[in-house]
Amino acid sequence: MHPSELANYKSAEGAARYNVRYETHFSKRLSDRIEKRLLEGLLARIGRQELLLDVPAGTGRLSGLLRAGAARLLEADVSREMLKVNRANRPEGALGHLVASALSLPLRERSVPCVVSVRLSHHLEDEERRWHLVELMRVARDWVVVTYFAHGSVKNWLRRVRSALTGRPPKKTLPTAEVRAIAGKNGFRVEADRPLARLFSGQRYALLRRAAAGGNGR
């Protein structure tokens, strides 16, 4: 992640802006409804979990939905300020809050039954996006729910055309085939891989399930 972007997320002002982001913009409110419906379906598919880790948890936009799918919810974020707002929003909502990066989680291998990581991958640099997937699978005992911006999506194709014309930076993406390959290399298989919206979003939700002991793909 670019240092300036990370600094914004870590600031009190950045946390306050993010806290209302999905409430003040019509497109974000619509996206929020669609996303929660999609995530709810994936959580129903894996069943209620004993413990679920949400990283990055942000200010708790998904906390209520995730808490309903698990007996205990652990929320982690690299931003202490985000977690402060999170706790203020839902003081009774989580088992605990952990200041930690999704690229280096202070947790043992296979220590959490299910790990959820939403809307982080497309903020990360090339190797960080791959490392992020491996780190989630390292700490997950059974399941990983993760989003990524698909390289082959219509939204990314349009962005690449616009980037060529305007010089605007391209999206930070991952090919779907590479997500599958990384999962397989680390003892997981892709159980589902669904677009948030085929035309208007490049975000995809991948549901990964541990299939075998697997290796460490770092």
Please, could you describe this protein's structure?
A 7-stranded mixed β-sheet has the order 3-2-1-4-5-7-6, sandwiched between helices. The chain has one domain: Rossmann fold (3-Layer(aba) Sandwich), CATH 3.40.50. It has 218 residues and is of the alpha/beta class. α4 (63-68) links the parallel β1 (49-54) and β2. The two termini are 19 Å apart. 44% of the residues lie in helices and 23% in strands. The chain has 8 helices and 7 strands.
What's the CATH first level?
Alpha Beta
Overall average residue pLDDT: 91
**Poorly predicted sequence stretches spanning 5 or more consecutive residues:** 214-218
The CATH fourth-level homologous superfamily: Vaccinia Virus protein VP39
- Total strands: 7
What CATH architecture label applies? 3-Layer(aba) Sandwich
In the sheet with the most strands, the strands line up as: 3-2-1-4-5-7-6
Distance between the termini: 19 Å
Percentage of residues in strands: 15-25%
How do the helices and strands follow one another from N- to C-terminus?
Answer: HHHEHEHEEHEHHEE
Shape: globular
Write the layout of secondary structure elements.
Layout: H1 3-10, H2 12-24, H3 26-46, E1 49-54, H4 63-68, E2 70-77, H5 80-89, E3 96-99, E4 112-117, H6 126-139, E5 140-149, H7 154-166, H8 176-185, E6 188-195, E7 203-210
Parallel strand pairs: 1-2, 1-4, 2-3, 4-5
Antiparallel strand pairs: 5-7, 6-7
Helix pairs in contact: 1-2, 2-3
